[in-house]
Amino acid sequence: MDDSAALAGHWQIVSAELAGETMPDLVAHKIEVELTQDTYTVRFDGEIADHGTFTLGDHPTAKALTLKGVAGTNAGRTIPAIYRFEGEHLHICYGLDGVTPAEFASKPGTAHFFASYRRKL
User: How far is CA 89 from the centre of its chain?
Assistant: First the structure.
């Protein structure tokens, strides 16, 4: 199975942080991401908040993906990210400043959004 097929499905955020700040569980657990072969849709509390396309690639430190927002909060933006699988969990670190993160971490002073997802059944 290639990564496009492995990424496809519905993913629920388990935990997330932005610039070193942990996202409250009440907010994080309302976010769901649906990935297809080359598109993504983010829903917050069931409503579409963001939608676009993505491509897969390589980065020196990890597997990479690049999001291109089409509609919603990230419309017109290109967001590079790195990702890895751990069983049924998916970890993605997004570079909201347009720079691909070098590690799976969100530290104070960075524009990194690090999220851990669990596949929804």
Answer: 12
Determine the Cα angle at 116 with ends 110 and 120, to 5°: 150
pLDDT tens for each residue of 14-29: 999 999 999 998 898 8
The amino acid sitting at 37 is Q
Quote the domain boundaries for residue 19.
3-119
Q: Give the CATH number of the domain where residue 46 resides.
A: 2.40.128.490
Domain count, the chain: 1
pLDDT digits (tens, 9 = 90+) for 73-92: 999 999 999 999 988 899 99
On whether the CB atoms of residues 106 and 20 are closer than 8 A, the answer is yes
